[in-house]
Batch of 2 targets.
Target 1
Amino acid sequence: MKEALVLLCVCLVLFPAANGQSPAAESDTYTECTDGYEWDVQTQHCKDINECETITRACQGEMKCFNHYGGYLCLPRSASVITAPEPSGHSESSLPVGSNESFSPCPVGYEAQGDACVDVDECVLDLHDCQPSQDCINTQGTYTCQCPEGYSKIGMECVDIDECRYRYCQHRCVNVPGSFSCQCEPGFQLAGNNRSCVDVNECEMGAPCQQRCYNTYGTFLCRCEQGYDLGPDGFSCNDIDECSYSSYLCQFQCVNEPGKFSCVCPQGYQLLGTRLCQDVNECESGSHQCAEGQNCVNVHGGYHCVDSNRCQDPYVQVSENRCVCPSVKPECRDLPFSIVFRYMSITSERSVPSDIFQIQATSIYPGSYNTFRIRSGDDGGDFYIRTAGVGSSSLGKFSVLQICCSI
């Protein structure tokens, strides 16, 4: 704010003292005068001494010397002197030469109170010429007109200062009459100095994330647990139906669950790991219901109970899995001499084509021949017989067995 130059006008009213002369009762030769006067021989009166001329550098600095009756004053150079007219009612004897009385007016801006000059408060007495938009500030002997904080003086008016031009705010500045305020972008809040902006941790202030919240500079991010997708609103988490994405997640059946999925197997199978199904061997685990005299034969997804003696007439059982047709029986002449029953498990992981087991004739008679064939159970054509030598063949498998599992 520029300081305005105030012209100080000090009006000094000087009243001339009456020409001092000797009282009639005294001798005509009396020539003493009071301080500040000297005897004028021509007029035979006491004449004022002009100290501003007789005293070298009577006033120092920026002060100006003003002579008045009986003395002088040091006043600002802007002060002016107004000489009052001669008082009409005073006689020449109104101010005796020997009198000690003298006139000492106060400078402009002061008023006499007793023997002292006291500052006049022009602001309180409404003696100033400040504009309504300005504040009157009283000073010693005068006053100044100042603009309120946030305003600058242009000419005689106070104009609002646009503090936003000076980039006081880190983010946004809003100018208001006489002041300004700082605002922050979303995700930030004002710091203690009301100018800087600091990040708001929305996660600690109740961010609307359904599952996980991650604070970032000026904002936050919502994330979901494994098995969930972030919703369109950016806050909620929706379960992922993994089973709908692929039909190969599980060997048998996929079951969707909140945030995950699980695989189930059909009856007679148990889960191997998390996705595969493995046949339950009820015969080994003892969970079958076969009666005495029956053998438990495990099959994929279950078991079969077969009679221990599978020899049918005219065959007789000679061992646990062998039936012989005695040659003494006429009906045995056109039948195989022996039948061997063998139950075995074939795993689905077995590579194909491959031999399963080898069949060997126990005895070979001269002039006889041996043949091997599959009598039943190969409706799908999955098995084959391969001759391995004289009286020997191998049972093999062409294709992978479809043991499990489809819905």
Note: The chain has a mean pLDDT of 81.
Target 2
Amino acid sequence: MQSPVVVERFIKVQNKDNGIINVACLGGGPGSDVLGVLDYFLKAGFEGKLNIHLFDKMDKWGRCWETLETAIKAELSEDRVTVSFHDFDVTADDKNNPDVENADIITMHYFMEEVYSERDNPNVKACFHYIIQKAKPGALLLYSGMFWYQVIGWVHQLLTPNCKPLTPGTEVTGRWIGPDPAIQVDLKQEVDLKLFDDIRDKLENYMYYSDDRREVSQRYKGRVIYRLYQK
């Protein structure tokens, strides 16, 4: 399932005069963001040049990146699609300044949840300040992840001083107030998104506080929350 708001904005990016789309995937891990971007724009019939930059820890994902790069080159013989991999760590002051200046789209898929516990780290604060300041005017920032309202609120606070929310309901940061922009994922097809099998029994036995139980329930049902902002 695709978000109409995201699709509408991505179409505008596709129709740029120069025919080039630059995408930065922050915390892209083994390459799921890269594959998602490729799948979307190729199916959308984009015929221009697509440059994708994945930023994450080289020592953790380097071997996966090599495999992914080989597979992409074998599948796409044309040079209009390039994928680059960059060593990136929000907590390291020598690796936390990703080159996002030319990015038309910046993705943060299940990334902000990973760094939330480090949000008060000075290097992490400096990293996000750098990203937001360096992003060019008009750049789209797409956050997607779990129904974790503390993280959603944190992302909103980080971005709204400099970025405009584009998704309906994005301005709401309180719990369970108004509609939350989300898409439904078919867990039968997306096995890797079954994130909470280990606590299913506790969830069903109401061993969580009300708000926590609702948040986890949304995740277990395969609902992925998203927010789209524009610099």
Note: The domain at 4-184+224-230 is CATH 3.40.50.150 (Rossmann fold).
